[in-house]
Design brief:
By secondary structure, the chain is an alpha/beta fold. It has a single domain, classed as Rossmann fold, CATH 3.40.50. The strands form 2 sheets. The protein has a 5-stranded parallel beta sheet with strand order 2-7-1-8-9, sandwiched between helices. The longest helix is centred in the last third of the chain and has 14 residues.
């Protein structure tokens, strides 16, 4: 059986990583999505267990104490974490798993699974486009958008730690480029 692969996709908020991952899954591939855990409130369009495992602070603390996370971070005032069991089963079963994680979490995963990880950073075309995308998704108030933009320089500084950088200035082209990267590096 072939080794499993962890395709670690990261980007600043609003760069399009979640949209890209959803599109990658629509092409009928065997690529599965790694569902992260978070303490942030669920958006109206999200489904618990599909988009995220939405946990209370107490539940997150309990899972953390039990060593269930391979990595976790505070991001924009909420905690996000990647469950160890989903990564280990993907690797053991030879599956390709798509991960949507923040930059620090991505680096931690790539460090923990150097042979199985493929790191792809989604770069926004420019600040103006990124700001407009954050406003257009209408899931955050202006204060939360400002926090996301404030974190941008820190997130962009992680770009060199990834295997590939793809600018998302055209969604179809970005999805095709990432799909090709995953296939070509298999």
């Amino acid at each position: 059986m072939s080794k499993g692969r962890l395709v670690v996709i990261s980007a600043p908020s609003g760069a399009g990583k979640t949209t890209i991952i959803r599109r990658l899954q629509q092409d009928g591939s065997q690529w599965r999505f790694s569902v992260s855990a978070t303490t942030r409130p669920r958006r109206s369009s999200e489904v618990d267990g599909e988009d995220y495992h939405f946990l209370s602070d107490a539940e997150f603390d309990a899972d953390l104490a039990q060593g269930k996370f391979i990595e976790w971070e505070w991001v924009h005032g909420q905690r996000y974490g990647t469950l160890r069991a989903s990564l280990e089963s993907a690797v053991a079963e030879g599956r390709t798993l798509l991960l949507d994680v923040d930059v620090k979490g991505a680096v931690n995963i790539m460090r923990s699974y150097p042979e199985q990880s493929l790191g792809i950073f989604i770069d926004p075309p420019d600040m103006e486009t990124l700001t407009e995308r954050l406003k257009a998704r209408a899931s955050d108030d202006p204060q939360r958008i400002a926090l996301r933009l404030e974190r941008l320089p820190e997130e962009l500084a992680y770009k060199p730690k990834f295997d590939y950088v793809v600018v998302n200035d055209d969604l179809d082209q970005a999805v095709d480029r990432i799909r090709n990267i995953i296939r070509e590096t298999a």
